[in-house]
Structures
1.
Amino acid sequence: MTPARILFVEDDVNLGFVIRDTLENVPFRVTHCTTGPEAWEAFQAGSFDVCLLDVMLPQSDGFTLARQIRSVNTLIPILFLSALANKEDRLQGLRLGADDYLTKPFSIEELILKINVFLRRTVIQQPQLPTTDFALHRQNLTLTINSQVQHLTHREVAVLAYLLDRPNTLVRRDELLRAVWGDDDYFMGRSLDVFISRLRKRLTQIPAIRIDNVHGVGFILRR
Amino acid sequence: MTPARILFVEDDVNLGFVIRDTLENVPFRVTHCTTGPEAWEAFQAGSFDVCLLDVMLPQSDGFTLARQIRSVNTLIPILFLSALANKEDRLQGLRLGADDYLTKPFSIEELILKINVFLRRTVIQQPQLPTTDFALHRQNLTLTINSQVQHLTHREVAVLAYLLDRPNTLVRRDELLRAVWGDDDYFMGRSLDVFISRLRKRLTQIPAIRIDNVHGVGFILRR
DNA sequence: TAACGTTTGTTAACGAGTTGTTAATGGAGC
DNA sequence: GCTCCATTAACAACTCGTTAACAAACGTTA
């Protein structure tokens, strides 16, 4: 069997090297990143079986990264590594959809055992047959679908990003309005409807992703 | 969805009661044992989705029990609860095939989150014969029966949820009306009948669940 | 049992409110 | 001026709780 692929994010260079080295001897195939954005790039570019995220990272923290990863992959095991034994942080990590939360110092053997727990339990990733490629580039304000690039406006990105971060979840109108517009009144509500309409038009090329309305409550982005 | 079934082994009566009570409120269906042999009996007799084992037990310890369980079931998630923060014990538990090892004191919320991690990752046991899957998702306003998703309205969810929370119990018309409509008069009563009718239609695909009328009094959801 | 009033089942129709969609408006930046 | 884009307007389409209407079931009384 080919070794499992691990996305390992740890900004402490020394600790990172030691862990990486040990994991590679198991053997696992390890991709080591030191910042959130770098890891997010790597995650999108590559294909992994497990994510190992340090919570404290320069630029964007591990929780943000986990949320990004979960928004596109609800299945991959995510294990947090943290220097914080803080209970609230542990809970937050788990609530975000993490699978475990190891507090430093942990023994490497324990880490390996834990990784194997989740490898054992995870359904093998199907190569996703008709994978229409789909990516919202929030910085560039572009949406790529099947290599076709569309240019969005800020508001469009804001609304779509908010929904994409919460796939298959009912997002209430007022929640969405407050998040994107900062407040909600009748006209903002109508504005929102206009944007939903525009986004739907943009998404018509991928039937796998759609925005459903729940009458009187809000919207669900399904994917 | 019917609640997951948990085999919970803990010899401390007070702590055991508290945890059991909390878990049942999630809800999970909890079978609480206080000794290893008793738990082994229960495991063989029943059918469970998760095992929660205290390490320190009278007669035979949690490790022995875990080994017994693993010998007949390699799939079921086993979580250890232990007063020992001892690293060697943690490792031993994991080596035995446990999935996690929580050291006391742990927060109950963390325990629940961890249980859900493994429920999510475990292939569903197909125990009972024609187990039609059935789930009312109150947030998303959806009802899933045999993988078929139906979209309900608020009122439908409110009525069905109220009945589902009191299965096999006579729910009086005025009680239901007051709970869902806030008040009861003649027309609300007729409205209720309309909703019962609609819900029955939605439930036709699952004969195991039905709503019976008790003339002049109210309804009983049987399952 | 027959008759009758009450309760319940079921379907359809109504109407207030919500959402979908397109176009017009107007402000900001150039 | 022009361009871009969020907002507002306008109207069409839809949703869904309620009400109406009638049929069926029930329970009581004679």
2.
Amino acid sequence: MKNKVVVVDDHTLLLEAIGGLVRDFENFEVLYLCKNGQELLEKLKFPKNIPDIVLMDINMPLLNGIETTKALNEKYPQIKVIALSVEENEKTILKMLRAGAKGYLMKDTKKEILKEALNQVVEKGYYHTNTISKLLIGSLTKDETAVQLKEREVEFIEHACTEMTYKEIAEKMFLSPKTIEGYRDSIYEKLNLKNRIGLVLYAIRNGLFTP
Amino acid sequence: MKNKVVVVDDHTLLLEAIGGLVRDFENFEVLYLCKNGQELLEKLKFPKNIPDIVLMDINMPLLNGIETTKALNEKYPQIKVIALSVEENEKTILKMLRAGAKGYLMKDTKKEILKEALNQVVEKGYYHTNTISKLLIGSLTKDETAVQLKEREVEFIEHACTEMTYKEIAEKMFLSPKTIEGYRDSIYEKLNLKNRIGLVLYAIRNGLFTP
DNA sequence: GAAAAAAAGGGGTAAAACCCCCATGCATTT
DNA sequence: AAATGCATGGGGGTTTTACCCCTTTTTTTC
């Protein structure tokens, strides 16, 4: 019995191409392909559509890789997710692993490594490269969870990533400029930032804002 | 006689996967795969390695797609380049077309479209989707070339994409703060920006700075 | 229901950013 | 020789940010 694989990626070309690669591996078969997380969750409502492994991109519209992985881990814990991404961003990788991904592959992976990863996930239940393992060890020492942004603060950060002044942002969010300054100050403290430029860079690097 | 295709992309998985797709098309064969522009130029030194079509990614280390395409157009004008990218950035697309690319495909393209593009490039010498055609028409009216940043201004912009104050940037560039302000003001005018946030976003969106 | 935490708003000061308009020196062009 | 372009630096002003420390109101928690 071949292991059933589903590939999820919004870039159709990449999606079909990776599907093609997996189809070439002897002990794997491609069940179907999805363009985003929402499409996958729809499909999974039918038991015949439940795969053994999901190869999942992280940056997707509608429902991204992290949220989708979380959902899968709750509803279908038997499905093993391997993240697939060009993102080398440490925090993103960690978020994905926390969401329950069993492996993480950079997109500059060789065909053989993909096969190896698929096989290891089937046999051992996980696949981690050296890079990822080191990251995991590092994450134990750092207290990442301490930084928790409020809903309204995230909203403010998105507005801060434009040419608007704080006064204008305040108007847009129906708040006093002073409240906005309050948000800013508490964010600066939490994230150890010096000025708005730093905030913008933080937002971009952590996916809160896409330029 | 099959048309010879070379794929250039730094993401190995994508590289191999696209190679696989092209291999499946009847009238095309994959000569070889490259991880960046430099590797391609090395290969081309041997006449037997000269393909009919190059499928080229834009963002690559060592020698990016735009520079590589320029080089190809000078030395091997018979080779037709099709750009392949996730970038939807207008300016990047235009740069690539100006460099001499005969076609431009987003990575969310279907397998059939890729085949269609390859065939059209062989037959007509070019392949442009509606989106690209509209862009081309638009570019004729706008005088994009007017905006020309000086060497030193670009250097300043890179520093502006950090938490440094202008005073600190001035020290780092061995200039008076007033000179820095001069750079800033002329850049704001040229690029129609309101403040430093806008500058940072411009820099990121146009590849002057990678966060 | 009281205590604690958070969200929202405020005052004041100093620094940074922004915006004009101007001067010098130096190379290239005409 | 005059003109142009450009890099560099400056004066003096306003606006916007940053950074203090503080109060009131709402929400959460025990």
